[in-house]
């Protein structure tokens, strides 16, 4: 299964963070090039597919910096803030609820919280000069949307706990430039809580029962979707479009700033160290996420 749109945007943001760290900004706001030191050529005997050793604390520091950057995004690359992420996408669909009720639903004004809170599994990470595989865990991701069900308006949400994301990237060098050739992966979640507003307007009890049942079924539905046993056409189209957007955005950045594998690795270190030309967020501009406190209190 391809990764979800917000997670693909995280992948794009992570790579573009390192792209941007190779460039600075002048006092008048214009971008200017910052020289990246040349690296020692890789010995001819080194396999392009051989796993590369990495320093876990260094990678920890990089992802910690990415978490802060997600508050700001990278508007210059077309990546908005992902903490929270706001989507203007409007979903229109209909379904039969076990032949009990025909539901027409319109959902819009999506807001996703929690994408900046994640950990990575160092033991299962693998990096080579042609591919990378990393597992991320998001303890709590909650998405809100304004919904209309059969004419009844409300605010609905889904809260997903302990999401595990396997992100795979394939890339290659051509003419001393790095290109992403494939993005993919899978997603699983431990538990979910769903509140679909106005599901049964005349029965609060029935609405609670069905919301609970839908939430409990989500991990199974995600597993079926991963295995290709559950076909959701509009979701497939959305994922395909998100994949194209992420790959195109990343490759444009890599090409524009003339980054190959080694220069990208150096840029990642610069970004982690917060050098003056790394284009990180202004710490004073990164506000505390009040929603996180709301989640911890468990009030809905």
SSE blueprint:
Layout: H1 5-20, E1 23-25, E2 31-33, H2 56-69, E3 85-87, E4 91-96, E5 102-113, E6 119-120, E7 126-127, E8 131-149, E9 152-174, E10 177-195, H3 204-226, H4 233-256, H5 261-273, H6 290-297
Antiparallel strand pairs: 1-2, 3-5, 4-5, 5-8, 6-8, 7-8, 8-9, 9-10
Helix pairs in contact: 1-4, 1-5, 2-5
Can you walk me through this structure?
There is one protein chain. By secondary structure, the protein is of the alpha+beta class. The chain has a single domain, classed as Bactericidal permeability-increasing protein, domain 1 (Super Roll), CATH 3.15.10. It is 33% helix and 31% strand. It has six helices and ten strands. Strands 3, 4, 5, 6, 7, 8, 9 and 10 form an eight-stranded antiparallel sheet that branches. A two-stranded antiparallel ribbon has the order 1-2. A hairpin with a 2-residue loop joins β8 and β9 (152-174). α1 (5-20) packs across α5 (261-273) and α2 packs across α5. The longest helix is centred in the C-terminal third of the chain and has 24 residues, at 233-256. Mean pLDDT is 78; it is low at 1-5, 18-45 and 286-300.
Key terms for this structure?
alpha+beta; two-stranded antiparallel ribbon; disordered N terminus; disordered C terminus; signal; Haemolymph_juvenile_hormone-bd; To_sf
